[in-house]
Amino acid sequence: MPAPRVFFPALIIILLVVVVAIAFPTRTGVTLALLQGWVVAGLGPYYMLIVAAFVVFATWMGMSRFGDIKLGQDDDVPEFGLMSWFSMLFAAGMGIGLVFWGTAEPLTHFTSPKPGVTGSSQELAAAAMSQTFLHWGFHAWAIYAVVGLSLAYAIHRKGRPVSIRWALEPLLGDRVRGRLGDAIDVIAIVGTLFGVATSLGLGVKQIAAGLRHLGVVGEVNNTLLVVLIVIITMIATVSVVSGVGRGIKWLSNINLGVAGLLLVAVLLLGPTLYLFRVFVESIGGYLQGVVGLTFDAGSFTGQAGLDWQGAWTVFYWGWWISWAPFVGVFIARISRGRTVREFVAGVLLVPTLVTFAWFAVMGGSAIKQAFGGDGGGLFDPAEGIIAENVLFDFLSGLPFGGVLSVIAVIVVAIFFITSADSGSLVIDMLASGGDTNPPKWSRILWAGLSGLVAIALLLAGGLAALQTGAILTAIPVSVVMIGMCVATYKAFQEEHQVLVRLERRQRREELSRRIRKNVTAHLEENFDDHFGDQMDERITAALSEGEQRRWKLWRRKHPVEHARAESDDAAQAEQAAQIEAVTAAEEAEAALVAVSETTDDLTDQTQGKQATDEPAAR
Hints:
The protein has helices at 4-23, 25-63, 82-93, 96-101, 104-111, 121-136, 138-157, 169-172, 179-213, 222-242, 244-269, 272-294, 302-311, 313-333, 340-369, 387-395, 401-431, 440-459, 463-525, 527-542, 545-557, 559-617. By secondary structure, the protein is mostly helical. It is elongated, with a radius of gyration of 35 Å.
């Protein structure tokens, strides 16, 4: 059942936005544009810094001593195979945007460079690919990794419900159970829904462009866009009702296969060797300039630089952050049984490399075609680039262009469906207090609301309104994510300390066992060498002079009894000596343990100092 203190506030906020945007589209568009200007001018550097911090944090978690921590119980195994896991997180994480911007963004950066970027055509092409890689590479997936890692640990390791609030429990304690926790989940729901709606708006514009290109429809207008959103949202609703293990899993696998088919077809039908060189060279250019690009806030390019940042880099950081609760919950839900190191490597490396390959093939081909300076048939130089049309104009110039265009429409449609159904399922889980199997009626409700928000934002200003919505909703979500980083480190550090103490206890017990065994064995084998003379002296000293004479006389008269008595006395003496030796060994062992504990204390103090100094050093 829905959690009333989360479900109804989130529902009211979303419905209010939808009603206002549909009733007053023009005023809403003007207001969103004004807010975007304020955010970009005032919070642009903030977005730059926190996204860079998220990259550092995610990488550190994967490479540090915390990498062996299991996201689940110690004997848990991954619920999904590697390929299914990767396809689901990739479809949810990139989705429609990858197809929408695959050719359009590199081409746009090449023909209309970022303010301050100049040079020859070759230099502009390299800069365009590096900028695109920045927007879609490690930074985007690091944002997802921060939320996903924190949630996966809370859900699978600590047994908490599927809810954003529980990721902050190590930091906030029991306050996550009250109003503060409710507010966190409401923020996550609103941010997720607007992030999903942004992608749906982009996707439906490209589907309409593809249908127009294929001659299925004539003019693309708002009515057509609304009809397409309604139809595909209904399909997504059917998928989300079927759950993760069926509809979403199979759609993700199918979509990855179809998208891979499109990528391979373009690679083989186009300038194959050239595209391989573009891929390799673009990775090198990205790695060479990633630090400078990360912190480029457009300070020395005036208002043009700020406008460009708002339309591109700041928009992307806001878009990824607003998507982060959705993608984070989803990939946490499907990542039970993996270690922290596996999770970070899987989320950061594999999708990033596949994304780079996609942009190298699609974007590299488009740039090569446009090298002549006349647009290469991809756009009208006087009109400029229309992002949703570029892909189909590009595919039409390849052999089997019509077939490839149909495949592209199918890829966008399935990405649309997987984004809508995955997002609706995550929102429903958050609104239901973390229930992993929420009721079907609420799944249908949130899937429908995703479509409504997409319609409202399209009517309020199209692409610009979609971008502004993503940027604005990312502000509160980013604050929650900062808290997640602190909480995750605190939880991992506490678990690591527990493991260290257990390892030390095991080492001490093993050391004690080995000392006892070795000392006892040595004394049993060499008793006479160590204690024979001492035992004879003790027996002699214990007898008086007269007793010694009587003892010697009796020993001569009774040699057999004497030998037996002497043997018994020797045995008793040997037993007493062994007891004394074991006691000495135990004392030696206690001394060694004391030394070990002293060493451990000194090590703890050193590690504590290092842990205190590490963040400052970093």
